[in-house]
Specification:
single chain; globular; 21 strands; alpha/beta; 23% strand; six-stranded mixed β-sheet; 452 residues
Length: 452
């Protein structure tokens, strides 16, 4: 696969957040980019506005037959007609991770992996590098609120990449700096057991280039088995870590804090987004920026200007009477961090959580964890399971989670019933969470809450 002499490239599943970043990379380089996705979204519409041709019908007559390279995401079924056509007719067909592997071979690669936190940390790092003037090529798994996109380019041969553990794709990357945010079990439909998940993250650390650096969250299980020429740990505020935050103060829905390492300190860092977990994420991003030699003054300024990521502790409404936060959380630990942080920031407000479970397998595997975490709320609305790539599993429904929630009032309803329910039951602190299509509720709920 020679990426330097490409003139035409086709993407199967181009509307995916990771796929679209790579499509934008080639489009900016002047390559003729086209692709297919199942439905038109805000993201695919942006790609089309940037000159990328996209079709939404699974029809082989619409394919680019002059494509030199075909890229697909593992979320696409192998029986999809475009994949079958390209494979049967001798085209070079590769996974998204294969392309990322090639892109990063010639660049200084900063990769961020972990079962949660990776989108925020990678976007923070990329923003710090861009805002400070250092520069980077960013391949992100979320839409940066600062720039309205998930990819940007730079003349500097440095790449910041969100390293996705799904389908073991991230094991193809060879980073110079590898960040590891979490090793909690997830994607058990792929890995089978928690031990296999941990083994994959250990292998991720073993792929660091010689003399490269591993920056891992302090206290990870099996941390002693992690590899890397230079190993550093970071933490929210545990001073046993190499780098941690201290003197954390609440500041109008955000935080002010100091970051400490044995040989250096940055004081009075201002983070203007919510969530204590985001203070920890900022510690990791600041540590990477410091390793690259960016000055404290520029780091401080970049963190203060960071506006967050779409659907990561995103404030849609925030005033004295009502707060509405939307988040991508779809794992029990992500939900725990989300609900705990929101209730800490807005003490005294009744907390209503609307949650859409994502995947039948994840609901089955983590029903106990979801029940325990959602019990932290004051009221819970559960939506039907969003299937994504899966077929239903007998006996696995939203009711599994509802049966395990203790304390809050629990309601199960379809998403189209939610706006009327919120209209009749004004929420002081409302949280919508999930990785499916729950984001379609953002606009109607924002309008309803603003008018209450």
């Amino acid at each position: 696969m020679d990426l330097n002499n490409l003139h035409r490239i086709y993407f199967v599943g181009i509307g995916g957040i990771g796929m679209s970043a790579i499509a934008r990379y080639f489009n900016e380089k002047g390559v003729a980019v086209s692709g297919y996705d199942r439905t038109s979204t805000q993201l695919t519409q942006q790609l089309e506005a940037e000159g990328i041709r996209i079709h939404y019908t699974d029809d082989v007559s619409l394919l680019d037959r002059e494509a030199q390279l075909v890229v697909y995401t593992p979320a696409i079924p192998a029986t999809m007609s475009a994949l079958v056509f390209y494979r049967e007719n001798g085209y070079e067909v590769v996974k998204r991770s294969d392309v990322l592997q090639e892109i990063t071979r010639s660049l200084f690669a900063i990769t961020v992996a972990g079962t949660h936190g990776k989108t925020t940390v990678s976007t923070m790092i990329a923003h710090l590098l861009r805002d400070s003037g250092y520069g980077c090529n960013a391949f992100l798994g979320g839409v940066s609120a600062n720039y309205g996109k998930n990819f940007w380019s730079s003349e500097r041969p440095v790449a910041v990449i969100e390293a996705d553990e799904y389908d073991r794709s991230f094991l193809k990357l060879s980073p110079d700096i590898a960040v590891l945010t979490a090793m909690d079990p997830d994607h058990l439909d792929i890995y089978g057991t928690a031990e296999e998940v941990e083994k994959a993250f250990i292998q991720y650390s073993a792929n660091i280039k010689p003399n490269g650096t591993l920056l891992a969250k302090h206290g990870l299980h099996r941390a002693s088995e992690l590899k890397g020429g230079n190993k550093l740990s970071y933490s929210l505020q545990n001073d046993a870590a190499d780098i941690y935050a201290t003197n954390i103060r609440l500041d109008d829905g955000g935080y002010e804090f100091d970051v400490v390492q044995q040989d250096w300190m940055i004081d009075n860092v201002q983070l203007r987004i919510g969530g204590m977990h985001n203070v920890e994420n900022a510690v990791a991003a600041i540590a990477v920026a410091h390793i690259l030699g960016i000055s404290n003054e520029k780091i401080r300024g970049a963190v203060a200007s960071f506006k967050g990521i779409r659907r990561r502790f995103e404030y849609l409404v925030k005033h004295d009477r009502h707060v509405y936060i939307d988040d991508y959380a779809h794992h029990p630990e992500e939900l725990r961090a989300l609900i705990t942080s929101a209730k800490t920031l807005f003490r005294g407000k009744k907390c209503t959580v609307i949650f859409q479970p994502h995947l039948f397998s994840r609901t089955r595997d983590f029903a106990d964890g979801f029940g325990e975490t959602l019990s932290l709320a004051d009221e819970v609305i559960l939506l039907p399971i969003y299937p994504a790539r899966e077929l239903p599993i007998d006996g696995v429904t939203t009711q599994m989670i509802a049966d395990r929630i203790q304390g809050p009032d629990v309601h199960i309803m379809d998403s189209n019933a939610v706006p009327d329910w919120i209209r009749a039951h004004p929420a002081e602190l409302l949280i919508t969470a999930g990785a499916g299509d729950i984001d379609l509720l953002r606009e109607p709920l924002t309008e309803i809450i603003n008018n209450q």
